[in-house]
Amino acid sequence: MRRVLAVPRHLAELIRFAPRGAITSSRFSGYARPVLLALLLGLPLLTQASGGSWSRDSGGGVISVGNQIMTGPMLSPSGPVPLTASVSRISWRIRLLNPPPPGLEIKLCTQAQCVKLDALAGQRTLPDSMRPGDSFQFMYSVNARGPLRPAVNVVSQHLTVNYR
Q1: What is the C-alpha separation between 161 and 164, in angstroms, rounded?
Q2: How many CA atoms lie within 13 A of 76 on its CB side?
Q3: Is 116 helix (H, G, I), strand (E, B) or coil?
Q4: Are 150 and 112 within one domain?
Q5: Which CATH number do you get for residue 65?
């Protein structure tokens, strides 16, 4: 089976093959054409290997009293993550049974540190101390006193970690 590669016309002009020593209108000749072709064909492989992502979903829990801290389950990558990788961006989505009460605080934590999340869903970057191979955990609290009516019931929490 022969593979056909679609190359834009302006790039095709640059990598057109001609016998060595032939006079062509291309800016490249001799060994430059095969090298350029190899670079162009290998570039997608390099960009695919340079990063990745992992996602996890879980249920949450219930906070029924103000100033109580509830931690969700640990969310970890299912496979190995390169030790040299760094987090480029995270995205999260949290679903509650009821609207969020005033004073709800949500943090995303690793063993190294926590970062505050300002909404039930969003995207952000993380500090370098939070690595993509770490286990992450959502932490919830409500800055209020006494029983919460209705209680905060976390139906689901989703985390995607993108790394490079």
Answers
A1: 10
A2: 8
A3: strand
A4: yes
A5: 2.60.120.260
**C-alpha distance across the termini of the chain, in Å:** 34
Distance from chain centroid for Cα 22: 49
Per residue in 56-107, pLDDT (tens digit) is: 999 999 999 999 999 999 999 999 999 999 999 999 999 999 999 999 999 9
78 in the same domain as 26: no
By the 10 Å C-beta count (0-12 exposed, 13-18 middle, 19+ buried), 101 is classed as: middle
Give the pair of three-digit tokens for residue 160: 């995607």
Question: Which amino acid belongs to residue 114?
Answer: C
pLDDT in tens, 133-154: 999 999 999 999 999 999 999 9
Bridge partners of residue 71, in order along the sequence? 139
Same domain, 101 and 86: yes
Residues 45 and 15 in one domain: yes
